[in-house]
Amino acid sequence: MERKITGCIVTYNNMRTIDKAISTVLEHAKCDFTLYAVDNGSTDGTPSHIREKYPEVVVIETNRNIGFGAGHNYILDKLDSDYHVIINPDVIIRDDIFNDMAKYLDNHEDCGMLSPRILFPDGRPQILGKKIPLPHYLIASRMRGKKPGKVLSDYAMLDCDMSVPVQIQNATGCFMFIRTSLFKELGGFDERYFMYFEDCDLTRKVNRVSKVMYYPYATVYHEWGRDSKKNFRLKMVQISSMLKYYAKWGLSSK
To answer: For the whole model, what pTM was predicted?
Structure first.
């Protein structure tokens, strides 16, 4: 029986990247697939553009910026799929990774969510944290140079064999492949985070009842602008989310 897969992209003034994201997702989702675009009050014409160019996409407008997690949760009660994909509007897909990841979950009932290999569009690997984001890891990530130091390497598990699936404590929110039933059971993302750390939080919740696995056989290309490093307001949002995360989970790595 063919699996049903849904995906969701939350948009906010994403005209620059949205065509690459949607067109590549639709091209390579060779399955029973429904894509939702939840728009958080864009003023650049993003939702009307999607409706006109991609009529197969279900566009839903919140009419205000309710945040990343709340945007994805906005369609939670509409999901009737086997698997659901959280997709950033600056992601590019180049292969049929949807069926591949679904097959892995079909065959591994103890796994609830997958995180793929993430590369820049030019093929360079993105050094992303895969352990619980403790303060010394975040400082190392913020202060990174051209080459990752010892602490950042530990955070990204660069010294581990990542050529095979391995359980991780932290998955990036730019692309998450999760069992729909589990996503609903957990109530989706914690909406106390407007943006940032909601992916760390969800990973932790999934790992309490199942497993989150890094799945290197599927590759996603992510433009990743690291906007919080350039924009003071977003930096403050990130710090606020970080404090909420530590207030909820503490500073333990367990």
So the answer is: 0.94
Does residue 154 belong to any structural domain of this protein?
Answer: no
Neighbouring C-beta atoms of residue 122, cutoff 10 Å: 6
pLDDT tens per residue, range 196-239: 999 999 999 999 999 999 999 999 999 976 555 567 888 899 99
> Pairing between strand 4-11 and 83-87?
parallel
| Cα atoms in the 13 Å half-sphere on the side-chain side of 130 | 25
Helices and strands: H and E segment counts in the chain: 9, 9
Per the domain annotation, does 217 fall within a domain? yes
Q: Which of 191, 195, 190 is nearest to 236 (CA)?
A: 195
Instruction: Say if 246 falls within a structural domain.
Output: no
Q: How many domains, in total, are found in the chain?
A: 1
List the domain range (segments joined by +) for residue 114.
Answer: 4-127+167-226
In a domain, 155, yes or no: no
